[in-house]
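Input set for joint prediction.
Command: fold jointly, output tokens.
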Amino acid sequence: MRAVVLGAGGQLGFELTAELRKRGVHVLAVTRRQLDITEPSAVEALFHRHQPDWVLNAAAYNLVDKAEREPELAYRVNALGVRNIAVAASGVGATLVHYSTDHVFDGEKQTPYEEEDLPSPPSAYGISKLAGEYYAHAYCDKRFVIRVAGVFGPAGQFTNRSNFPELVLRKARAKEPLRVVEDFFATPTYAVPLAARSVDLLEKAPFGLYHLGGGETVSWYQYALKILEAAQLEADIQPTNHREYVTPARRPRHSSLSNKKIEELGLPPMPTLDEALADYLHRRDTVRSAIETKA
Ligand SMILES: NC(=O)c1ccc[n+]([C@@H]2O[C@H](COP(=O)([O-])OP(=O)(O)OC[C@H]3O[C@@H](n4cnc5c(N)ncnc54)[C@H](OP(=O)(O)O)[C@@H]3O)[C@@H](O)[C@H]2O)c1
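tokens >
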């Protein structure tokens, strides 16, 4: 099998590349420097040159607050970029795996969101990602759209956007105060098992829409405490709430994703958050030395 991974310089793209290579797939790992997904002819030319069986798109504009100031750019990458990929993947007969987000939901539901729940994105970022889902479904018959939440992977220590564990570790080590919301809840998704389950889906499951959250609902405050505990760090940490923590973009308050559909397919459950964080901290050093060796 031949795969193209787009967004290979990001947290998830890094893990997808590693997981596919582990399974013997020939992978072309493509970073933003090598291909801008907003350029339709460049996307098409790359797929024609490499004739992939699978295309996995982990490239995205992920700056949730900044998207409120530049919604056109978010839309160009997250919606029209996905259209370019879906059209080009379909043109070479490839199966597409595309990633979306819990931010397609408004967060008013008090129980985990299932695939049948109606999206109602509260922000420019969420709207752009939902439009990307629609483009994937509309232009590529052989496609998986996987919604994930609060992705964290060891490569996040080097990426432009980074991730929540890195923010907590950095602030704790710098002895800066941490104020974290205790009334926003999510299912943070560890990129390593996310990559493995994605390839499982490709190999075994019917095309369609899937939720792949971390499987454990926590508040962001509880999550920060777990990170500190796993890293055995002391910090000046206090809970805050949605009244005090006001951001340019509206975020869903309860955006847990239910993994029921993938578990009913017989895929292994995601690890607990404690297990995921322990593995994350362990892998940070391995990934750092791998990336430094390559550079
Ligand atoms: N991270 C989260 O908390 C989170 C939560 C929910 C859903 N998701 C979704 O999960 C997927 C993977 O996210 P991630 O955490 O791996 O993101 P990430 O680490 O930010 O990686 C995204 C990658 O996409 C690249 N990119 C941006 N614009 C591009 C363009 N026009 N052409 C080509 N590449 C471009 C970025 O390059 P630059 O760094 O150079 O811009 C970056 O390498 C995305 O679909 C994301 O929307 C993520």
